[in-house]
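Take the subject:
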Amino acid sequence: MSPLSWTRLTALAAVMGVVAWAIARMAVGSGSSPMSVPWTVLLVAGAGAVAALWLGWTVRRYRRGKNPGLSGMRAARTAVFAQACAYTGAIITGAFAGYGLAIADEWSHGPRRDVAISAFVAAAGGLVLVIAGLVAEHWCKDGGDDDSGSRPAAP
């Protein structure tokens, strides 16, 4: 499993942003009304971020020798979950930021401004998910923030 990279996450968010922007511009240009993004996107992204950080914290404690009962399989699953959160967050961030930028062209129109704001809030939720995934993955990596650079001895 290769570690996350800012370059890959940024490229994914940028591609999704451009695609979402183009689709939204075409839809609005053809007369469609933009739909507001549900505020629950922020809540779900926040819940995923909390879960990733909590699971990553348990692995961090294991690596420092404070949680010897943690299985290696759970630690590996936590690292995969952290990466999935970061990739999903990058997709959410890019897609909703692109959508919001496409709608923000008509900022003076009140209802469209509300749609753009809801899209930007959802994009912020995706960014929170990216950051949580990166932090949790860092806690799971060999040589993460462990002072000694070694794992606890096996019983």
Q: What stands out?
A: The chain has one domain: 10-20+38-140. The chain has four helices and no strands.
